[in-house]
Amino acid sequence: MKLPSLQKVHVLVVGDVMLDRYWVGNASRVSQEAPVPVVDVAHVEDRPGGAANVALNVASLGARCTLVGIVGKDDAARILRESLSAAGVTCDFVDAEDWATTLKLRIVSQNQQLIRTDFEEVLPADYGAAIREKARLHLAHATALVLQDYDKGALLDPGALLGDAAEANVPVVVDPKNKPFSTYAGADLIKPNMNEFLAAVGGSRGDDELVGKAVDLCVAQGFAALVLTRGAEGMTVVEKDGRHQHIPARPADVYDVTGAGDTAAAALAITRSLGWEPIACAQIANVASGIAVGKSGTAAVTGPELAMALAASDRGDRGILNREQLVDAVRQARAAGERVVFTNGCFDILHAGHVAYLEEARALGERLVVAVNDDDSANRLKGPGRPVNPIERRLRVLSALSAVDWVTGFAEDTPITLLEMLKPDVLVKGGDYGPEEVVGAELVEGYGGEVRVLGLVDDCSTTAIVARIQGALPAG
């Protein structure tokens, strides 16, 4: 995947603008006045937040952007205008009388937020008409509209803006908050998080029910698609015609989740401007937000950063899946004519033998599924002291390998249940035994599948590695 030139993309962002301020310093002592840390503030950082962060991300990714929002006549508004203008964002703000620009102050020490304090006031008047007037002027030149709603007062009447966008034939991406989803009826894409979605549709007993409720919501409200952000579980995209796909979170060191949703909204608007289908848009947004969580605080993702991340992977749907998601992914792969290869194991300490084996397995088809024994089953199979690495770490390491498409964990001693559910085209194991000795071989061959046993890389064994390490350590 890669993005084409974005010179013709012009995203209009309308929503709640705020300034994110960071006081950063060391906290090496405790106050004598109360049991709280004392932070010696070394420097102060101001960054655009809320809708302003969406706009900054649009510009940083390489597209043109205009931002419409409400600010006070104060220093925070000046800082926002200067920083956004320097980044290439066109600011067309409504200046509110007797009101202070929303400001969020975070005190940070050793890369950890110690406290956040919000400075915000209720708007003294309805500025909806002024917001709409400015937005309508820019819609004539926009390729997409983002409604970034933080319930601070800039979007009291989203319906009017949606109507104006429809008249201008401009697709709308909505990042909602607490309003009923019917408020955004007619939007092209809506991007709630899991809590917002469940608050709107009620509980869900699994991904199948979740998808069904999302389809019903899209049909009822006229959404082309719903992009559900699920944190560490990635995203689920559901279109109104029932097509859907779960996109696993990208392997990343999560540094700070602040503003990741803003980055996703920016990427969705840019790719929708290009005419891309919702699933492809979400795949780009998933990669972009994965970059954002690896940064400290509210931060923008640049075009080169995204291009490098996309170049590192030829697919946007690889990663860790639960069983229900994996069944769905395999079904879609098979419908696309892709050959699915399956293997399983503990993969406790990943070594060169594992990598060579998985690469050889991947060459047997278009998709490779790796099922990993959870901690309890690995302990039963391998004995005391194993596994060395917990299941979460083993899944993450495997998901980062280019040869691996999907990874899942299982609690049983054998993968029979998974094989019955997935019915892979090829079952692969490594070792020096025959295909008839592979667990699940009879099942796979029974429905017409193939069983392959691959060779081993000499002198590569997790058990031997553990033994060597233990032998090198002093007793006791």
Can you describe this structure in just a few lines?
The chain is α/β, with parallel strands linked by helices. It has 16 helices and 21 strands. The longest helix is centred in the middle third of the chain and has 15 residues, at 207-221.
Characterise the protein shown here:
The chain has 476 residues and is α/β, with parallel strands linked by helices. It contains 16 helices and 21 strands. The longest helix is centred in the middle third of the chain and has 15 residues. The chain is globular and about 80 Å long.
Topology:
Elements (H helix, E strand, L loop, with lengths): L9 E6 L1 E14 L6 E14 H10 L3 E5 L1 E3 L2 H12 L2 E3 L2 E3 L6 E7 L2 E8 L8 H12 L4 E5 L9 H10 L4 E4 L13 E2 L3 H8 L5 H15 L3 E5 L5 E5 L4 E4 L12 H14 L4 H15 L10 H9 L7 E2 L2 H13 L4 E6 L6 H11 L4 E7 L1 H8 L8 H9 L6 E5 L5 H7 L3 E5 L10 H6 L3 E5 L7 H11 L4
Parallel strand pairs: 1-4, 1-10, 2-8, 4-6, 5-7, 10-11, 11-12, 12-13, 16-19, 17-18, 17-20, 18-19, 20-21
Antiparallel strand pairs: 2-3, 8-9, 13-14, 14-15
Helix pairs in contact: 1-7, 3-4, 7-8, 8-9
Write out key terms for the chains shown.
21 strands, alpha/beta, 2 domains, six-stranded parallel sheet, globular, UDP-N-acetylmuramoyl-L-alanine:D-glutamate ligase, 16 helices, 25% strand, single chain, 476 residues
